[in-house]
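Archive maintenance. Older records in this collection stored only the sequence; we are now back-filling the structure field for every entry so that each record is complete. The fields below show one back-filled record exactly as it appears after the update. Entries are processed alphabetically, and ADP/GDP-polyphosphate phosphotransferase is next in the queue.

ARCHIVE ENTRY
Title: ADP/GDP-polyphosphate phosphotransferase
Organism field: Croceimicrobium hydrocarbonivorans
Length field: 282
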Amino acid sequence: MYTREELCKVKQRKDLVQIAEQSGTDLSKIIRNQRYEEELRLLQTELVNLQRWVAKKKLRVAVLFEGRDAAGKGGSIKRFVEHLNPRSMRVVALSKPTEVESGQWYFRRYIKELPNPGEIVFFDRSWYNRTVVEPVMGFCNTEQYDRFMVQVPGFEHMLYEDGVILIKFWFSISKEEQKKRFKSRMKNPLKQWKFSPVDMKGQELWDRYTYYKEQMFSKTHTTFSPWIIVKTNNKREARLESIRYVLSQLPYQDRRLKNRTTILPDPNVVARYYRHIEQIDI
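Back-filled structure field:
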């Protein structure tokens, strides 16, 4: 983009901008990327401060990431944990239950993964597999599904009473954007491992996913454990705003952002669920 001669003349950032303007180069994408990286750096710094505070106060924090396939859950978790101390943080992404686990109380294998004092645990999918994916794909029967839906509010209320801080994200993606991301995964050899037979059914069974998702919200959205909807058609926006939401929910000390950015999430991107909230994965 710049020649060696041009770079040798550069002393300040404005010199680079001036050269680009003279050559007719569009810098808008570069500037957007730079702003995103800077914003992410500031928020990740705050996450480090938050983690120290959680460890000092011996708090237990669990953050659940749910949503349709390709909604960006894994990418967001990666940005959350990128600079955190692994000694007081974990990412939990359980595979399908073993034969023994299938015969146990459904919540048992998740209880073992709950945060210890001073720890933050990020769940890449959680016990809510039973509310959407399992009934849609036939991985559980009606009796198992109904029992879970009755038990989960009580289970989460016990966590609340015991002092566990539980944040539940639903990453909302449109059908068109999901299809686009599926195609991108199939073309990228580094991401093909993310694509599974279950993913292939995502578009075909879109309406059934929607039905069970709405059932989940209506029966498991509570005052003590609300669902937080994050619009994720814009991946970068979703990452930044979900981090802001977590930062805004905990009264940690030593906040250093001052006037450089805000920890308050954009209500057009992140909002608490209510029956008539605008979603993009309907």
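Update note: The chain has a mean pLDDT of 90. Residues 28-57 form the longest helix (30 residues).
Entry marked complete.
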